[in-house]
Amino acid sequence: MAEIENRPTNFIRTIIDADLASGKHQQTHTRFPPEPNGFLHIGHAKSICLNFGIAQDYKGLCNLRFDDTNPEKEDINYVKSIQEDVSWLGFKWDGDICYSSNYFDQLHGYAVELIEKGLAYVCFLSPDQAREYRGTLTEPGKNSPYRDTPVEENLALFEKMRKGEFKEGECVLRAKIDMASSFMVLRDPIIYRIRFAHHHQTGDKWCIYPMYDFTHCISDALEGITHSLCTLEFQDNRRLYDWVLDNISIDCHPQQIEFSRLNLEYTVMSKRKLNELVVNGHVEGWDDPRMPTIAGLRRRGYTPASIREFCKRIGITKQDNMVEMGMLEACIRDDLNENAPRAMAVLDPIKVVIENFEEGKVEHLVAPNHPNDESMGTRELPFTRELYIEREDFRVEANKKFKRLVLGKEVRLRNAYVIKAERFDEDAEGNITTLYCSYDADTLGKNPSDGRKVKGVIHWVSATHCIEAQVRQYDRLFSVPNPAAAEDFTQTLNPESLVIINQAKLEPSLAQAKAEQGFQFERMGYYSRDNKASELVFNQTVGLRDSWAKIENA
Ligand code: ATP
Ligand code: MG
Questions:
Q1: Which ligand has the minimum distance to the alpha carbon of residue 231?
Q2: N or C, which end of the chain is more exposed by having fewer CB within 10 Å?
Q3: CA of 43 to the centre of ligand 1 (A)
Q4: What is the phi/psi pair of residue 427, to 5°?
Q5: Among candidate residues 220, 240, 259, the one where a domain is terminated
Q6: Given the residues 31, 65, 271, 505, the one annotated as active site
Q7: What tens digit of pLDDT does each residue of 343-361 get?
Q8: 44 lines ligand 1 (CB under 6 A)
Q9: Residue 337: CB within 6 Å of ligand 1?
Q10: Are 69 and 102 in contact (CB under 8 A)?
Q11: Is 46 near ligand 1, meaning CB less than 6 Å away?
C-alpha cells in the first residue's frame, strides 16, 4: 500500500516544530521505552510509530530502551521479542540497545547525591504504616518519623541496603519532597527498594532496585532525550520527573509530553490481562492470531504497512477514546485488496461432476493473479471433470437475488466456463453429496454466443488436482466491545473466535505459499500462510467486507 506521503500533524509535532525553530534543540531525540514483561501490542505500535516516526521525519534519533527495573516480572525472551517486533514494524533504533539497568551505577550515585543534599532518607515504616501516613486525595499526609534522620546516618543506612544487610521490605529509600502536596506522587515517593532477585541483565550484582519514576527521567536525561513522550496516566508523574532532574547534577532536562493511549474495541491491551490469557490457556500463546499483540497480528496476516497506516489514521491527541476494531481491519483490508494475489479455495465443498467433460482430461486454464494489476502475473488452474464448489453456492430452489448456482440454471465458474446444474444425489439426511452439471465449452473468457445472460460467478477447484490444507477461521477474541469493563474479562471471551476447517480444498498453486504471505481467497476473505505450522495452514486475516459494522448498526 502506498503510505500517504504527507507527514502527520499533531500537538506534539507542533511543540517540536517550535523547539527546533527557537533553537532550543538542534535535533530531536526520542525513545521507545518498553518494560520487557510481555509481548508488544497494538497500543505499543502507536507509541513506536510516534517516537520512531518523529525521528524519521525530523532526521532525529530514536532509542530503544528496555525499562528493566522489575527483575521478577521481566524475562530475556520478552527482550528478544520486542526487538523483533520493532524491526518487523520497519523501524531501526539508533546506536546500541539501551537498558535502564545499564545506568544502575549512575542511578545509585544520584540517589546518594539526593541523600547528601538532605533530599532523600531511608524509611522503616511498614507498607501499612506508609499507606496510613500517605494521606488521601482530600487529606494531607504525615511526615515519616524517619524523615529527619541525619544525612550521615542515611548514607550509612542506604549503604547497608545496598550490601544486603536488610531484609526485603524492611526499609526503602524515599525522596523528601512534600507530604502535603496535592500530587500524591510528590508525597515522599519511594525511589529505591530491596529485592533479592536475579536480574536478566545485571545478574546478582544488585539487591536494591530503583523505582520507575526515579529511573525513567534519569535514563532519558543520560541519553540526551529531547522529548519524552508517554501516555496520559503519567501526567502527575511529570512533577516527580521534573523534581528529580531539578535536584541532581545533570545538565539535560527532557520535556515530558503526554498523549492518550490507544484503546481498541473487542480486545484488551494490558500486558497483565494478555498474560492471563496466555497462562490460563485461553489462547495458544502471545502470538496467537487472535491476540492484539504485534506477533499475533503478524501471524494473523497483518502487514507492517497496515499497522503503520492504522497508527497514522488514529492520530495523536490528549483525548481518551475507544477505537473501533473496524478501523484496524479496514487498514489491512485496503492493503491486501491492493497487494494480495487472488486464489481460489473451497472451505465447505460439494463435489461437482461435469458430465460432458472428458474423463481423465486436464485443461490448464490461465488466471490473472490480480484483477487490476497485470504486473502480478498469472497462474495455471487445472480444470477437470470433477470439481468442488462451496456448499452454500448451490440451491435446489432460490429466488432471483441468489446469484449463484440453482438447479436447472447456469452460473460462471470464476476464470473458467459456464456450467448448468442438471441433477444431484443426496444422502439419507437430505445432504447433497454430488452435483451433476454440464458445461458450455464455448464460454471460456467470453459470454455465451447465443446472447443468453449468466449473472453469477462462483469459485471452484479441481477435485482431482486440488491440495488440502487446514484453514483457521478467526473472529474477534471477545464478544463485547469493552471486555476490560467486565468484572471478569475472561467471561466475555467469544467462544467462536476460532473455527478450524481441516480439509479445505485449495487450488494447487497455493502449495507454494510462503510463510506470512497473504492471499485473497476469492469471495471468501483474506488469508495468510501460518508462520509456525510446518504443514500447510492458512489463517483468516479479515473478511472481504466489514460484517461487524452491519451487526453493530442493527
Ligand atoms: P501495559 O499497560 O499494556 O502493560 P505499559 O504502559 O505498562 O503497558 P510499557 O512497556 O511500559 O507498557 O510501555 C512502553 C511504552 O508504550 C510506554 O511509553 C507506554 O506509554 C506506551 N504504551 C503502552 N500501552 C500503550 C497504549 N495502549 N497506547 C499507546 N501507548 C502505549
Ligand atoms: Mg509500564
A1: 1
A2: C
A3: 7
A4: -90, -175
A5: 259
A6: 271
A7: 999 999 999 999 999 999 9
A8: yes
A9: no
A10: no
A11: yes
| Distance from C-alpha of 7 to C-alpha of 114, rounded to nearest angstrom | 43
Active site residue 261: yes
Model confidence band, residue 5 (pLDDT cutoffs 50, 70, 90): low
Domain C-terminal end among 430, 458, 486: 458
| For ligand 1, atom 27: residue with the closest CA | 43
Judge contact between 74 and 43, C-beta under 8 A.
no
Is 269 touching ligand 1 by the criterion CB < 6 Å? yes
Rg (CA), the chain: 31
The whole-number pLDDT of residue 7 equals: 83
Q: CA 436 to CA 353: how far, in whole Å?
A: 5
Task: Print the domain residue range for 351.
Answer: 345-458
Q: What is the CATH number of the domain that holds 378?
A: 2.40.240.10
Do 359 and 325 share a domain, yes or no? no
Span from the CA of 373 to the centroid of ligand 2 (angstroms): 45
Contact 74, 180 (CB under 8 A): no
**Cβ(381)–Cβ(366) below 8 Å:** yes
Is-catalytic flag, 131?
no
0.70 surpassed by pTM? yes
Domain shared by 28 and 85, yes or no: yes
Is 463 within the bounds of a domain? no
Beta pairing class for 255-259 and 378-383: unpaired
**Are 201 and 216 members of one domain?**
yes
Q: Which ligand is nearest to the CA of 271?
A: 1
CA of 297 to the centre of ligand 2 (A): 21
CB 516 within 8 A of CB 306: no
Output the nine-digit C-alpha cell for 375. 504486473
Tens-digit pLDDT profile for residues 360-369: 999 999 999 9
Judge if 526 and 486 occupy the same domain: yes
- Asked whether residue 103 falls in the same domain as residue 178, the answer is yes
Q: Are residues 297 and 228 in the same domain?
A: no
How does DSSP assign 487-521, residue by residue?
A: SSGGGGB-TTSEEEEEEEEE-GGGGGPPTT-EEEE
For residues 255 and 129, state if they share a domain.
yes
